[in-house]
Amino acid sequence: MNFKRNKIYFSALFMAVLGLAACSKDSSEGEGPSNGESVVLKGQITTATKLDANKTYVLSGYVRVMDGASIEIPAGTVIKGETSSKGALIIERGGKIYANGTATNPVIFTSDRPVNERKEGDWAGVIICGKSTVNTADGTALYEGGSLGTGVASYGGTVANDNSGSFTYVRIEFSGLAIEKDKEINGLTLCGVGSGTTIHHVQVSYGGDDSFEFFGGTVNATHLIAYRGVDDDFDFDQGFTGKLQYGISIKDPLLADLIGTSRGIELENKGAVTGGLYSRPVLSNFTFIGPGTTNALSFHGAGIHFGQNSRMVLANSIIVNARTNAVEFNTDFPALELKQGRSILSNNLVFGNTADYGMSSVTAFVDAAALRAFATTAGNVTLANAAAAGITSISLDAPNLLLASNSVALGKAAYTGDLATGFTQETFVGAMGTSTNWTAGWASWTPKTNVY
Asked: How far is it, in rounded angstroms, from Cα 235 to Cα 299?
């Protein structure tokens, strides 16, 4: 994660009690909410609280679901992050969220701005904190070192199967912003979240920072979409070891981190690793569509970034159209981990506009050609261009990631080792095959003009 010059620094806002204050619709909001009454949420939620899908809710400041409390959000509920207070929903360690939409009626978190005025970074985002493992000195942490305030968003512990609730068929739009230099809130941030938590079918669109960030934890998830985010689409840190299947990353050439580098994956453990708990996400069936080179900002980087003090399994995926390298290694550690089999890169289709593979400060491989040869023996295939993957359409405004009947991605998948359990064993690589578009009905490619 990186600080954005164009993001507004703000002080953390706290309230001692939960406020559920009804307020009338504001006619200046243009289209107005599609639901009836508008209700402001603020402060602390300390009991079991159920929202009403017939009302629209506004997050004012940091809304915290405290230890022992819960928030239930029914299908079709619209929750707007208040722009003026940089609203956020924080599920504290021991609290629970049950946000469960359906394939035709998702839960929607979005900006409180009107149609055509919503933009990335309008509000803060959603943070879920759990009691699972984190590779800090004492196994716990405070979000971004306590930048949100004393005791806010504490996470970590020893309960690998901790349950923070369920988060399914949910859209998060226009969230993500900097709170201090190099300290941000993302679209969906999962902090020490355990494997007892259910997460699937989540789309983060126009995020002002990372779309999905995993700080430690063991949670597994499926069907994740990062759409036109500013910074990294999937960021792994602090010893995350969950399994993820079916993911989409789509970059906008004109949206990027104006100080750092925007990637499909950032795998980077910048802090010390305690107890040998390295980040080691296991991913299968992802499709990464980079920004290409036409009009793409120079701040766009590689599709996949293997960084320091981390390992990863990335298999059965499509990585195309990165502005620079499809896959890169920036230090010797991740390259050596790949060479020695503690990281795995297998059965992927890759294409980058600079190169398929790139590396810097690496001695484990003599050069990029040696790295490519190693990857090829693991079933990775370098494509001539993005179109060679055989995806129906990578149009930015109306993507269709179903595979054409002659795609080289068909019949290529393999599920062995880490992938032998916990994954649906498909025959195709990438997020979709030829027939089932799992984004249909609940995801949206037009959040700026949707009427809520």
From this structure: 17
Cα angle for residues 308, 211, 230 (degrees, 5° grid):
90
The reply to whether 58 and 155 lie within a common domain is yes
Residues 72 and 139 in one domain: yes
SS3 readout for 297-358: CCCECCCEEECCCECCEEECCEEEEECCEEEEECCHHHHHHHHCCCCEEECCEEEECCEEEE
Of 234, 230, 373, which is closest to residue 307 (Cα–Cα)?
234
Confidence class for position 270, pLDDT limits 50, 70, 90: confident
User: Per the confidence metrics, is the pTM higher than 0.90?
Assistant: yes
State the total domains in the chain: 2
Phi-psi region of 53 (alpha: psi -120 to 50; beta: other; left: phi over 0): alpha
Is residue 41 one of the residues assigned to a domain? yes
| Residue pLDDT, tens place only, 19-42 | 444 333 332 233 334 557 999 999
Does the structure show a pLDDT above 80 at 8?
Answer: no
How far is residue 431's CA from residue 317's CA, in Å, rounded to a whole number? 7
pLDDT tens-digit profile of 367-384?
999 999 999 999 999 999
Domain that holds residue 182: 14-219
Instruction: Give the bridge partners for 224, in sequence order.
Output: 202, 247
The string of pLDDT tens digits covering residues 105-116 is 999 999 999 999
Shared domain check, 137 and 36: yes
Mean pLDDT along residues 404-408: 98
Phi, psi (deg, nearest 5) at residue 246: 65, 95
Are 259 and 407 within one domain? yes
Q: DSSP assignment, residue 130?
A: -
Q: Can you tell me the distance from the alpha carbon of 431 to that of 223, in angstroms, rounded to the nearest whole number?
A: 8
